[in-house]
Amino acid sequence: MADARITLHPDFRRGTVDRRLFGSFVEHLGRAVYTGIYEPGHESSDEHGFRRDVADLTRELGVSMVRYPGGNFVSNYVWEDAVGPVGQRKPFLDLAWRTVEPNLVGTDEFLQWAEREGVEPMMAVNLGTRGVAAAAALVEYCNGEAGTRWADLRIAHGRTEPYGVRLWCLGNEMDGPWQIGHKDAHEYGKLAAEAGKAMKLVDPSISLVVCGSSSMQMPTFGDWERTVLSYTYDLVDHISMHAYYEEVGGDRGSFLASGTAMDRFIDRVVASADAVGAERRSDKKITISFDEWNVWYLETRFPGETNLPIQRDAPRIIEDVYSGLDAVVVGDLLVTLLNHADRVPVAALAQLVNVIAPIMTEPGGEAWRQPTFHPFATTARLAHGTALDVRVDATAYDTARHGSVPTVTAAATVGDDGTLGLFVTNRSDREVEVDLAHVGAALELTEGWRMVADHEQAVHGPEHAAKVADACWSVVDTSAVVVGTVTGSTTVRLAPESWTAFAGTFARV
Description:
The chain is α/β, with parallel strands linked by helices.
C-alpha cells in the first residue's frame, strides 16, 4: 500500500499560473546591486557596467519580474538624487542598512537593465519619509509622455520613450517599527490611498500593491489588513505578503514544513481581504503580491540592522549560504505558491544576487548558483498554463512550530498543449511511495529532477556550492522511480527529505 495518494484531474483547476509568480528582488542592500548585478570593470560587464554573467544566470533562473529599489531601503530614498549625470549625484547615508549609498545605479539604470534583460520591473515608492507628490512624480518620470515637468526631465536624461512601468508598491513593511517612517494602520491607509490616487491620476493603467503585515507574527496582523484595506480596497489591486523561514535549534521537522506555514498565512490574508470586500458588498477580489519570500536565517545569523556599523563600498550583509536542505524547503514553498495561483499572481524571491540569494558573486571574480537556484529555475521552466487543484492524502507528523503537517505535498500545472509539470515534496526522513490517481486522464512522466536534503554545514564559495549540487541535485530516471502503473494510477517512489519535479504529459481520455 502506498504512503500517500495524489489525485489529479484536468477539470480540477486552481487558476492560471501568472508568469510574475517567478519574480525576484534587487534592493540597495549589501552587494545586491554593487558587485551583484552591477560592477563596471568586471571582465563580464557590458558597456553599461552590468555583469553579463549575472544576467545570464538571471535568465537561466527564469526570473520574470524584479522588484526595486526596496525593501527597507525605499523608505529613506530620494529617487531624484539618483537620476541624471552620474558624476553630479551625491552619496547619502541609507538609514535602513546603515550604508553609504553612492547613487551610481538609480531609476534609469535599473529600468534599462530590466528592459535589456526582458524582465518586468516592479517599482516601490517611498511612503516612509516622503509621500504623495514624490510618488506621483516618479510615476510621471517613468511613464509620462513629453510635455510635462518630470517626463521632460527623463527625456533630458536621454530616455525619450516612457518606460511603461505597470506594477507599483505603495511603500514597504509600513507596519514594522524598524521601518524609517513607520506608521500605524490608519496613518498608512490614508497615505497609501492618497498616494495611490495621485499615481493613478498620472497613469490610470498602473496596478498598485498596498502593504500588508510584514509577517504573520506581527501583533497587528489581521487588524492591519482590515484597516488598511478599508481605506484602499477600491483603489489597489494587490496586498503584499512577506515571509522568511529558517531552521531554528536543529528543528528539522518544523523547517521542512515551512510550506504549511506559508499556506496558512496566505489563507488568513485572503480571508481578511475577502471580509473587507464582503463588508463593502464588492465583487472585486484583492489578490496577493508575495513580494518577499525565501529561506533567511534571520534569528540565528543576522545581528539586526541597528547593530550594523556604518559601512561603505557594498559591504557583505546577509549573505546566507544555502544547503541542500534549504533548497528542498524552497521547492516546497514553490509548491505552496502554485497551489494558490488563483489568488497569488505576483511573488518575488528575495533577493536575486548575494543577499539571501540563489546567485552569488565575488567582486572581480566568478558568479555561481546556490543550491536554492535549482528548484526555482526548474519550477519556473516547467510550471505553465493552469495550476490544478491537486488533492493530497498523506500521513501527518507533529512539529513544534506548526502543529500537525502532511508528510507529502504536491502541485501540478498543465499547459494548453497537455504538458505537465508535477512538483512533489517528501518531508519525511524515509523513502515513500505515492499513488498518482488520474482517473479519466492519461498521465506520462518523461523527465525528472530531484533535490535531496543534506546534513552538511553550508560553506561560502563556488566549490562548496558545486559539491552540494553534485551530492543533492540530480536528474531522475523516471523508469526507476515509477514503480507501478495500472489504469488511472501511477505509483512513484520519493527519496527521503526531497523535492522532485516531473515533466510529462496529461490529457483527458
